[in-house]
Amino acid sequence: QVQLVESGGGLVQAGGSLRLSCAASGRTFTINTMGWFRQAPGKERDFVAGILWSGGATYYADSVKGRFTISRDNAKNTVYLQMNSLKPEDAGLYYCAASLGYGGRNYGTYAYWGQGTQVTVSS
Fold first, then answer.
1. Biggest distance spanned by C-alpha atoms of the chain
2. What is the mean pLDDT of each run of 10 residues along the chain (123 residues)?
3. Contacts (Cβ under 8 Å, ≥6 apart) of 74
4. Cβ distance 96 to 35 under 8 Å?
């Protein structure tokens, strides 16, 4: 089992920045990919960014490329999402997720999820 706890959400003005954190515990040695997803009210859960736990290769949704950066600190078992130049459409509940294989962009391939942290962007 892997447990995930997100933090760092909040209210920010458009153009501002936030950094989300996701602390992993439990059988972290089994993790292959960590991902961030977001879900706005009434919408599907969308992929935002992913990172390979070993090696650190990253990949992003086109909508956030160049503005968001995913990173990890293996020693702390923590993944971060630095969000810059935030837009109102970036608002939503942000979830951290872990996959035991290659996670990709499909939320169905991620086995473990955090409880989510809310990001609100005012225009």
1. 41
2. 97 98 96 97 96 94 98 96 97 98 93 98 94
3. 53
4. yes
E strands present in the chain: 2-7, 10-13, 18-26, 33-39, 45-52, 58-60, 68-73, 78-83, 92-99, 112-113, 117-122
Residues contacting residue 62 through CB under 8 Å, at least 6 positions apart: none
CA distance 53 to 31: 7
Residues 6+ away with beta carbon under 8 Å from 49: 35, 36, 58, 59, 60, 61, 64, 68, 69, 70, 81
CA 28 – CA 74 distance, rounded (Å): 9
The DSSP secondary-structure symbol of 78 reads: E
